[in-house]
Write a structure and sequence with these properties.
The protein contains 2 helices and 7 strands, in the order ββαβββββα. The chain is of the alpha+beta class. It has one domain. The strands form 2 sheets. A 5-stranded antiparallel β-sheet has the order 5-2-4-3-7, covered by helices on one side. It has a two-stranded antiparallel sheet with strand order 1-6. β3 and β4 form a beta hairpin. α1 crosses α2. The N and C termini lie far apart (30 Å).
Length: 141
Amino acid sequence: MNDRISTPWIPAWIPHSGHALRHAGIHFDAVRIKGAAGSRVASELMVRTAFEAGAIVQEATGERYMYFLLPPETVRAYEWPPGVRALTRGRRTVSYVGVPALTGATWPLGWRSVPTAERFFVVGKLLEEVAGRLLVAGAVK
């Protein structure tokens, strides 16, 4: 990780060190995809965006989920295929997502795609298209 990242654009919900749980639906919404399927979707997004995909968090343990961060209160605007879980706030739901710092030791979380001032969030329409194509077609199980 590059320790010389300029910080003026970094929002307060990204921790300075380690990692922290953040409430989905307030600062961001998230799309969660498990294991190899999530990795394949992330790789395809990286290729299609010239490696400027926006914020993608990956887990290194357990189910190895991939979390694609979208602007707050936008995740419901899309139709997600089976195997995708949309995380946001609602009247009867509370969802939290682990967010790593941009530098330093953040295990077991890390950035698959680091947010930048130019592309902070993942583009929802592109994620919907890529996830739909890869997951519905059965390309990744």
